[in-house]
Amino acid sequence: MKYKGTYEFFSTFIEGLTDTIPITIPFNLTPSKIRALENHQSLRFIHAGNWWNIKNPEKRSKEVILAQQMKLANENTIGFMSKNVQPGDLDLKEEEDRLKKIYSKKINYDKFLYWLLDSSKLIKYYKKNLEYANWARENNNSTIPIYCSIQVNNYESAREWFEKASNDGHDHFCIGVSEFLKYPKYKKLGIKKLFEISLGIRSVINENAKLHFSGVASYYLMPILACFGVSSFDGSTPVTSALTYGTIFNENGYGQRASVLQDNIEKRERFFATANKCKCEVCNGKDIKQILDTFSKDRKTRVIHNISIWRNLVSEINSKKNNLDKFLEILDSRINSKYFKDLLKIKDDALEKYDY
Ligand SMILES: [Zn+2]
User: Fold this and answer.
1) Three-class secondary structure assignment of 183-230
2) 3 C-alpha to center of ligand 1: Å?
């Protein structure tokens, strides 16, 4: 369970984002976003898209994905995610029924969360994932690495299939993880699975190999997953929470709506711990009242602030990368939250279960 390199977080791209912020973009980026990105010099990770957003399989074929990724690539592109598949996306009828039932709440999610299935039922998908990644590697006309994506669902399948991928010559790996965290009822189990999967993958790949978890941006999960050897992440939490809910985060990853902080002095004091320590371009030089005023009026400032909180976390992880266990201890005492302590317990259980 060793990883020797540096860590990175790629934020969902929105127009107007500072061009030093590493971003993730989908292969099917809209023309307006393509224009907005023309002069963007940040690092970029190019995603293979989500099967549940793209109903027509022809629009998400391995050929279309790779061709579009190569078109969107520039000298700052660090990787292309290979096409990942899982139960649901090969059978559109079944998928449509599944979504209909979920949205009308007539059915338990557990029957349909693929990662709860027995791993033996997923073998044809594992095979397909590796086949797509190998194809992408052979047909990639650029020097940008293919991130071999396989939707494994436990420690054993992670070891087996990422070892095969490693033997096939891959040294960049990926898994789409948002489904593990999607439903509150299964979140704890999903987190446990993700810890075990990261442990499994890292145990069979090279210590310099990259491992990307796509679809997780949790302030609390990223440092723990880094400890398991996940080298990069992409996700939308700092952006979408700022835009959709008006949420801002403090330097301990604690989120609260800016409007609530404006009205509630007690919550405000707890949030800022008397003074705002953030030095981002929005907060710098302002007092708490001025900052909250700015956050309430201008949604973009919330995004800029939140992303700076995430950038600080990534720099901390990188500066402590030689002793991340120690870093988790420091973080634990700083965050002082029951939820984070529970996560650390799940982490320790995973290590013990697999004898690390
Ligand atoms: Zn700030």
Assistant:
1) CHHHHHHHHHHHHHHHHHHHHHCCCCCEEEEECCCCCCHHHHHHHCCC
2) 31
* CATH number assigned to the domain covering 8-235: 3.20.20.105
CA–chain centroid gap for 1, Å, is 20
Distance 189 CA to ligand 1 centre (A): 33
Residue 253: DSSP 8-state: S
H/E stretch holding 12 = strand 8-12
Nearest in space to 79 (alpha carbons), one of 50, 48, 49, 57: 48
Intervals of CATH 3.20.20.105 along the chain: 8-235
Give the C-alpha separation, 84 to 280, whole Å.
Answer: 36
- Around ion ligand 1, residues with a beta carbon closer than 5 Å are 278, 280, 282-283, 305
pTM over 0.90: yes
State the residue for tokens 């397909």: 128
Distances in Å between the Cα of 168 and the Cα atoms of 79, 130, 185 are 18, 9, 37
Q: Tens digit of pLDDT per residue, the chain (356 long)?
A: 589 999 999 999 988 788 889 999 999 999 999 999 988 889 999 999 987 788 788 899 999 999 999 999 999 999 999 999 988 766 656 767 777 777 776 666 666 788 998 999 899 999 999 999 999 999 999 999 999 999 999 999 999 999 999 999 999 999 999 999 988 889 999 999 999 999 999 999 999 999 999 999 999 999 999 999 999 999 999 999 999 999 999 999 999 999 999 989 899 988 988 677 899 999 998 999 999 999 999 999 999 999 999 999 999 999 999 999 999 999 999 999 999 999 999 999 999 999 99
Helix (H) or strand (E) holding 43: none
- The span from the CA of 208 to the CA of 6, in Å, is 9
Question: How much distance in Å is there from the Cα of 259 to the middle of ligand 1?
Answer: 16
CA of 304 to the centre of ligand 1 (A): 7
